[in-house]
Write a structure and sequence with these properties.
With about 325 residues, the chain is of the alpha+beta class. It is built from ten helices and twelve strands.
Length: about 325
């Protein structure tokens, strides 16, 4: 009887130890998974992607290129009531796409006859939107405006059909708008966001920089993403922040805690200290759960009848 009871108690201790080891492994796995998830999510945003803004100080550049660039105007208000024409030829304003008060906007400034940069900008934007988990029309709006006053609704309709076919998303028709406008409306918009461009009479084309500009639901400049490669992770987090966390999932605040927008590079930089702090917090939380688990799983042998049962064995 005593031997059998001893074996039973030994087996129970072994099972409790095994359960504890499994729980410790789970703690380590979850903590490492949290850190790895943050690093993986922003790994694509760690590479260099710089684009100068402001007046170019390089005197070797042609004078026309020295006048081209993007001056960051974070918090600036875009002209919501400036008239433009949509791809159907109807007069619209930017305010019409912001009337619900919670959808942020991805603004791209291009011109539809551009032979080089603009097609690449739109192609990169389409790729990023297609890979992003947020839905155009439902979570955000996309507005592409031509800064060439010679472009017409027919030009924007052609470009819209091309990009929506590449996007292949059910919400694209309602969420992505292609606009043209007069010189006055174009100047009001481009100046409000710091977008500087110049007409090159020799090359018969516009010299311009490239960037996506995120707007808040109130039409204020929130973020700039430069270059020709737009990370879906960066774009998603930028939209979540621009909406004041009105869109996105519960994961986004965790990811935003692990990173910070860098206005100099137009990227989200991984904050290693925040990642480690988050991993430490999860570890402490799970260790507290382990202590609670062990406390609850240890049998109380000093309760009523406990000593008598032990003597009887």
């Amino acid at each position: 009887m005593a031997a059998s009871s001893g074996c039973r108690l030994g087996l129970e201790k072994l099972m409790r130890c095994t359960s504890s080891l499994r729980f410790i492994r789970l703690i380590a796995f979850v903590a490492l998974a949290v850190i790895a998830a943050c690093i993986s999510a922003f790994g694509q945003a760690l590479g260099p992607n710089y684009q100068a803004s402001g007046v170019n100080s390089n005197g070797k550049l042609p004078p026309i290129l020295q006048k081209v660039g993007i001056d960051q105007k974070l918090g600036a208000q875009v002209p919501l009531d400036a008239p433009f024409l949509n791809s159907s030829g109807q007069t619209v304003t930017l305010r019409q796409y912001l009337n619900d008060g919670h959808k942020p906007v991805v603004l791209s400034l291009v011109y539809y006859s551009c032979p080089m940069l603009c097609p690449r900008v739109l192609s990169a934007l389409t790729t990023s939107l297609r890979r992003m988990t947020l839905d155009p029309g439902k979570d955000y709006q996309v507005i592409t405006v031509s800064f060439d006053p010679r472009d017409t609704p027919a030009s924007s309709a052609k470009e819209k059909a091309r990009q929506l076919a590449a996007l292949n998303h059910s919400g694209g028709e309602q969420g992505w708008h292609f606009l043209t406008g007069s010189e006055t409306s174009i100047q009001q918009l481009t100046q409000s966001v710091g977008f500087r461009y110049q007409w090159d009479p020799q090359g018969k084309q516009f010299a311009h920089a490239t960037a996506l500009i995120l707007l808040t639901p109130q039409g204020k400049v929130s973020k700039y993403f430069y270059g020709l490669d737009y990370s879906p992770t960066d774009l998603r987090l930028g939209l979540v922040q621009a909406s004041d966390d009105k869109i996105g999932s519960f994961v986004d605040p965790i990811l935003l805690f692990c990173c910070q927008y860098n206005p100099m590079t137009g990227r989200y930089d991984l904050l290693v200290s925040h990642v480690l702090a988050l991993g430490a917090a999860f570890t402490l939380l799970l260790l507290g759960g382990l202590v609670f688990f062990l406390f609850r799983s240890t049998p109380n042998r000093k309760g009523p009848g406990g000593d008598a049962d032990a003597l009887a064995t």
